[in-house]
């Protein structure tokens, strides 16, 4: 259900996102930095955590001055955990299917349950987790928790409903095939990770979805939607004891089960260049290099480098490739930090006649950063940019909810905002020079999609 218009949080696909699993555009630095490891600081007890007897984790953040709240259930299972072929795309299809009906509500009743209260319901699937969220007035916490528990714990998964919803997902896959700036990321990930689960499409394939059975989805649900794999998070106008009371009433019925295993690290990543011939009006280019996983301390450094390269209109690539040379409409840097590995790179879309020049200019900027890092003046500007994005992102209950759940999903300690900003400020020119070497063009795998391959 997440929108894909701004290319932010693009490792997620959901019932209304209509897009593939794409890395996070670097302008969304909040997701990349705000959940990073830091000392546990919780001076005002605004953030609290409780574990239910069946292993369900309940976390909440009280936000003064608001009358609403955002609530969600995160499941520690995504596309990378699927047992390949017969389950490919199963996590995403299961996320669709829970909205088709539960033991207590029809599909129409699910749609009406929170909308009639002025609220909303949302869901998405990533490579490493699945999420369901609700946004309501604070007085409607009980209704939100009831609906979320109904969706996640008691879906019908009826074969007749699957026959219909399978067609919806097949249309979603077909839409990606017809959207070259989405498709190039899918193709790049598949080949970049050399068969590792991080390269799989969250949507699955037309073949895997076409043969997916209701029994397969039931088996996946029984394995993954258990107490140790569930995080119930709420942010906004709340009292933690009320959240725990509601979670106990609705989620204590989740079976105990076992926690889903963390994905094994990939054995490196691909380098070089590959072209996919398509009859398109533009050539779409993705350059990417592999990084350490999300718990590595250099994560802050990578966020700043990526922001300097292509994180906004003032970035190097935007100014050079678009403003000075007029070679593109869209150019940006991106990154994703999974548990076991990360990826950072650049996307640019340009007409076939200018593709070679655009690729050359991107490589030049990557080389400049790899050789010299960022001068102190530029580094300070990027620090302010990233810190501003973090603080602006934290002004809504929805953003606080995702940050809260992300910390718990990745077993990271809660982090005070001031401590987080201090970590960004602590990145030095020497840190950038050391880490920037990994952005050298010869470390990248480049994928192009369009009428013609790049020249030699």
Explained architecture:
With 456 residues, this protein is α+β, with helices and mostly antiparallel strands. Helices cover 40% and strands 18% of the residues. The protein is built from 16 helices and twelve strands. It has helices at 29-33, 90-97, 107-115, 141-153, 159-177, 180-192, 206-210, 214-224, 240-251, 299-310, 316-324, 355-372, 376-393, 397-409, 417-425, 429-436; strands spanning 24-25, 47-51, 57-62, 68-75, 120-125, 130-137, 230-236, 272-277, 283-291, 330-337, 342-350, 445-450. Helix 10 packs across helix 16 and helix 13 (376-393) packs antiparallel against helix 15. Mean pLDDT is 91; it is low at 1-12, 15-20, 27-31 and 34-44.
List the helices and strands and how they pair.
Blueprint: E1 24-25, H1 29-33, E2 47-51, E3 57-62, E4 68-75, H2 90-97, H3 107-115, E5 120-125, E6 130-137, H4 141-153, H5 159-177, H6 180-192, H7 206-210, H8 214-224, E7 230-236, H9 240-251, E8 272-277, E9 283-291, H10 299-310, H11 316-324, E10 330-337, E11 342-350, H12 355-372, H13 376-393, H14 397-409, H15 417-425, H16 429-436, E12 445-450
Helix pairs in contact: 2-8, 4-9, 10-13, 10-16, 11-12, 13-15
């Amino acid at each position: 259900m997440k929108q894909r218009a701004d290319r932010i949080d693009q490792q997620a696909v959901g019932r209304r996102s209509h897009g593939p699993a794409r890395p996070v555009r670097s302008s969304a630095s909040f997701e990349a930095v705000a959940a990073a490891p830091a000392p546990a600081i919780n001076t005002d007890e605004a953030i609290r955590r409780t574990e239910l007897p069946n292993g369900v984790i309940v976390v909440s953040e009280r936000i003064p001055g608001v009358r609403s709240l955002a609530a969600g259930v995160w499941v520690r299972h995504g596309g990378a955990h699927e047992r390949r072929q017969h389950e490919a795309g199963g996590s995403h299809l299961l996320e669709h299917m829970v909205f088709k009906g539960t033991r207590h509500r029809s599909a129409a009743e699910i749609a009406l349950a929170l909308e009639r209260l002025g609220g909303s319901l949302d869901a998405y699937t990533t490579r490493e987790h699945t999420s369901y969220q609700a946004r309501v007035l604070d007085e409607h916490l009980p209704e939100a928790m009831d609906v979320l528990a109904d969706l996640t714990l008691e879906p019908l998964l009826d074969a007749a409903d699957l026959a219909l919803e399978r067609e919806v997902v097949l249309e979603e896959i077909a839409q990606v095939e017809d959207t070259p700036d989405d498709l190039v990321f899918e193709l790049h990930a598949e080949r970049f990770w050399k068969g590792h689960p991080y390269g799989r499409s969250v949507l699955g394939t037309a073949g895997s979805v076409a043969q997916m059975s209701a029994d397969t989805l039931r088996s996946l649900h029984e394995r993954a939607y258990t107490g140790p794999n569930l995080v119930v998070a709420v942010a906004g106008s709340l009292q933690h004891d009320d959240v725990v009371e509601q979670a106990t009433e609705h989620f204590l019925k989740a079976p105990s089960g076992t926690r889903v295993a963390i994905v094994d690290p990939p054995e490196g990543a691909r380098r070089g260049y590959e072209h996919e011939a398509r009859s398109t009006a533009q050539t779409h280019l993705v350059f990417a290099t592999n990084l350490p996983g999300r718990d590595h301390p250099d994560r802050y450094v990578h966020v700043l480098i990526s922001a300097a390269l292509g994180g906004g209109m003032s970035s190097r690539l935007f100014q050079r490739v678009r403003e000075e040379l007029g070679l593109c409409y869209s150019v940006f840097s991106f990154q994703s930090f999974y548990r076991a590995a990360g990826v950072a790179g650049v996307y640019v879309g340009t007409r076939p006649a200018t593709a070679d020049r655009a690729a050359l200019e991107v490589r030049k900027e990557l080389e400049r950063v790899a050789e010299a890092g960022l001068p102190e003046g530029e580094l300070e500007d990027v620090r302010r940019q990233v810190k501003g994005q973090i603080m602006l992102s934290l002004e809504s209950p929805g953003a606080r909810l995702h940050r809260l759940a992300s910390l718990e999903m990745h077993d990271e300690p809660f982090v005070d905002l001031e401590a987080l900003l201090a970590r960004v400020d602590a990145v030095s020119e020497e840190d950038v020079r050391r880490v920037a070497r990994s952005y050298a063009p010869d470390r990248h795998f480049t994928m192009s999609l369009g009428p013609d391959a790049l020249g030699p």
